[in-house]
Amino acid sequence: MLHALADSTRRDIVRRCLGEAASVSRLADVYPMSFAAVQKHVAVLERAGLVSKERRGREQLVRSEIDAVRQARQALDQLEATWRGRIERMSDILAEDEGDGTHERDQH
Amino acid sequence: MLHALADSTRRDIVRRCLGEAASVSRLADVYPMSFAAVQKHVAVLERAGLVSKERRGREQLVRSEIDAVRQARQALDQLEATWRGRIERMSDILAEDEGDGTHERDQH
DNA sequence: CTAACGTACAACCAAATGGTTGTAGATGAG
DNA sequence: CTCATCTACAACCATTTGGTTGTACGTTAG
């Protein structure tokens, strides 16, 4: 899923389909590449759950799944939270050392 | 940079080096792959600015750059903000239509 | 000094990526 | 019906990726 967002064309597709859905050929008009290439990008985004397709007549409307974007963001949030947790635990250990005076050394 | 975070081994390395730095060989002990493979992963992370290396004796300590992680998260935040912006503008347009009664159609 | 350790880097390989063209099947407009 | 449009999908290609092994070099321990 991060992989799906790691391509600028795909990020742009997601951005473009956030408000209103667009058909694949309408999207293909925008980018300097073939229809098939855009089709593949959409397929990658779909597999990652970042967009969904809905058929309307002969067109296939692409719409972004904002909840999936939120989920990706939360994954990174969690990395940061882990970091904060580690820093806290380090502070705790320092506090202990100051309190008990045993001065045991790190096992390296 | 999202690409750098799109690999689970690399995400794990970042997580592992958040609190305290680790040498490349210490990291290599953890994963079921060769030292050289881990070295490459670290290189990818370094190019993306997600970790930095610092030499200490014959070891090379890897430490995660929490600010870079924050930056990645903010990039996704912005996607979500764009979405909220679109929704707002759509609401505005609806409000206008209700107000002036001109009922002009979307230019498709 | 010598041996062991940690690193760097090149060469190689299979598989995935991001792109292309071409063909074929649905669907809608006239 | 017929034609243009939209989509799907296969085949192909160059490049990148994620992994391997092997070699060489600097540093530290004994």
Structural account:
2 copies of one chain form a homodimer. With 108 residues, chain A is α+β, with helices and mostly antiparallel strands. Chain A has a domain at 2-65: Winged helix-like DNA-binding domain superfamily/Winged helix DNA-binding domain (Arc Repressor Mutant, subunit A, Orthogonal Bundle), CATH 1.10.10.10. Helix content of chain A is 63%, strand content 13%. Chain A has 5 helices and 3 strands. In chain A, helix 3 (24-30) crosses helix 4 (35-47). Chain A is elongated. Residues 101-108 of chain A have low confidence and may be disordered. The A-B interface holds A 2-3, 5-6, 11, 14-15, 18-20, 64, 66, 69-70, 72-73, 76-77, 79-80, 82-83, 86-87, 89-90 and B 2-3, 5-6, 11, 14-15, 18-20, 64, 66, 69-70, 72-73, 76-77, 79-80, 82-83, 86-87, 89-90. The structure holds a DNA duplex (30 and 30 nucleotides).
Gist?
The structure is a homodimer of 108-residue chains. With 108 residues, the first copy, chain A, is an alpha+beta fold. Chain A has a domain at 2-65: Arc Repressor Mutant, subunit A (Orthogonal Bundle).
Question: What is the strand and helix layout of this fold?
Answer:
The structure is a homodimer of 108-residue chains.
Chain A: H1 2-5, H2 8-16, E1 22-23, H3 24-30, H4 35-47, E2 51-56, E3 59-64, H5 66-100
Antiparallel strand pairs in A: 1-3, 2-3
Helix pairs in contact in A: 3-4
Chain A binds a DNA duplex (30 and 30 nucleotides) through helix 4.
